[in-house]
Amino acid sequence: EDPQNTDYWTSIRSQVSQENQDRVMNMSEAEIREAQDEIRSAVSNETLQRILQRKNKANTSEPHNSPTPKDDKPPKQVRFAETDESDIPPPPPQAEWVDESATSDSRINVDDNSTGADSEFYQETKRRLFPSNMVEDAQLAWMMGHNQAKSPMEQAVLETRQQNAQAAARASSSSDKLLERAASKVRFAFDGQIMGEEQSDVPTSAGLHHHGDDPEKPGYTIPELLHLSRSTVPAQRSVAMATLGNIIHKVNTGVWDPAQAAQVYTSLLDWQAELYFVHGILDTNKTSRAKSVISLWTWVVEMTRYKALVRLATGGDLEPSNPKLPGADIKMTAEPVAVKGVLIERTFAALDSMLCTKFMDAVYENISMSLMPEQQLTMLAECIKTLASMSNEFNDRINAHSRLPLLLQNKYPYLMNKP
């Protein structure tokens, strides 16, 4: 017969079922009990119950292939009854007006936690989900609200957070005041020249566009240059230091109007550029160190030679016949006799903070180990010589160093003995 025929498989199933029934009917009671025990040992009781229920349900249900009796009744039809207006219910009454203020106390305040429920919740959550971890409340402080601290640890975390926020606000306020000054907004090219409005169309290939406060404007402000001098990229640090040195060179040579040059130089003092010069000398990159030394030399030595600081303080060119202002004798003393002498006083204070033991140790290390080209090492030694000639205090501080004076005297005798 054709195996694909459905009737063939139906007859096979019926034949097998009949053979099984005949075998069961011919089994003795002992054989039946033995077979039942074997089934119970292999199948759980729940499975046996489900099999028996399915068997009983199949026996009681009607066969699927039984013919369905034909019904000669006409098909049912659905009709909708006509609606009477009297049967329509009246509209619901309008909602009464509710006073918002009267029910305001019943609202949930998500920030209110007088019972400390949230604090207990995150502790219980950590205990259940991470039982092997030690309890460290400081790591879970971010889950607390601003008024949910109950334990001493939580209170300490919130107090520390508030102190940090207040310190950041004070620092931001101080920086904002400096940025409000006009000199902090002036942009410079890499050669130190001021970028005017007519130079706003400089192509981006010149490298003067960057991701600063005004990316569409070319050039760098003094705050941006100082920030760039602390970059993690050595090339950026070198460019920033070289540009700062070029700006100071423009101030020294009188390229700009004295009032304008004084504003630029004051901006350098406001942003404490001397600290960046010291950090540059400690740079691990050889090129960045060399650029920092050149900029420092431009500030200390070249500014003294050109008497630029005295010229800025007097508001014009210095006349050799009447050098009355302190600092005209090349020594930049801290004794102002007029308001214009504030620049000299501030410069002296900046140099005083720079001339520390750490700075002199860095100078000694660079010169003794020849960490830079000889030209930059000579410029660094000349900076120390000029600082020593500015005041007796500076001279005593340099001579108090244990190794630097002897090194300079042995390596640069012509320079150190020069009057």
Explained architecture:
- With 419 residues, the chain is mostly helical.
- Among the domains are: 151-180; 224-416.
- It has helices at 6-26, 29-42, 45-60, 117-129, 152-179, 222-228, 234-252, 258-270, 273-281, 286-305, 308-314, 342-354, 357-369, 374-390, 392-399, 404-411, 413-416.
- The protein is elongated, with a radius of gyration of 46 Å.
- 23% of the residues are buried.
- Residues 95-117, 141-150, 203-211 and 317-340 have low confidence and may be disordered.
Radius of gyration in whole Å, from Cα?
46 Å
Q: What fraction, in percent, of the residue positions are helical?
A: 40-55%
Shape: elongated
Approximate strand percentage: under 5%
Largest sheet: none
Taken in chain order, the helices and strands follow as HHHHHHHHHHHHHHHHH
Q: How far is the first residue's CA from the last residue's CA?
A: 128 Å
Beta strand count: 0
- Class by SSE composition: mainly alpha
Q: In DSSP terms, counting alpha (H) and pi (I) runs of 4 or more, how many helices?
A: 17
If you average the pLDDT, what whole number results? 74
Low-pLDDT ranges? 95-117, 141-150, 203-211, 317-340
